[in-house]
Write the structure tokens for this entry.
Amino acid sequence: MPMNSDQALIVIDVQNDFCIGGALEVPFGEEVVANINRLVKHYEMVVYTQDWHPKGHASFASSHAGLAPFETIDLSYGKQVLWPDHCVQGTSGADFHPDLNTDSADAIVRKGCRREIDSYSAFFENDRETPTGLEGYLRTRGIKRIVCVGLATDYCVFYSAIDAAKLGFEVEVQEKCCRAIDMDNSLSKARQEMQSAGVDLK
Ligand code: VGL
Ligand code: ZN
């Protein structure tokens, strides 16, 4: 694999709460760690994201009386799935998986930090317009193509890949380095949408 200086690898949310025994366990999530550690060596630029919620976050079912995890609610910016409390700032659940090698990180982007709004994508919060700043970081570093891996294929990887394509980057998702939540057929919907958006599924 060539070392292209115009490519960045984006490693999305490989955190304890999305792995085995975590608060929002993605089936077999931890299986991506070894593959990602191998992949990282082939990229000059690697950015990691961390889901990083304050206690009482609006995406937590526990913040809405009478509602349970995996139900949906209408928030000011649209429909939001409610999740179990997860990736609370400063907790071990929010830490990267202990075997994930993050030593060579160029940047770590934390998202979902504001209590009232969730952020699946590494580029925009769930209102689909508030930027995280990652676009500017990648552009000023001359990045043209991004490769997305991590958790979960049908949520944060999906939204990141779609947004990157909309922003005009070439985008690839390496599915062997991703695992899905796959709720209500969300994985096949995500795969179809990524394909129609021109995302290269590998
Ligand atoms: C994610 C649900 C809630 C993800 C984050 O990383 O895909 N999913 N927060
Ligand atoms: Zn989250």
Notes: Residues 51, 53, 59, 86-87, 112 surround zinc ion (ligand 2) (CB under 6 Å). The first helix runs from residue 32 to 40. The helical segments are 32-40, 134-140, 153-166, 186-196.
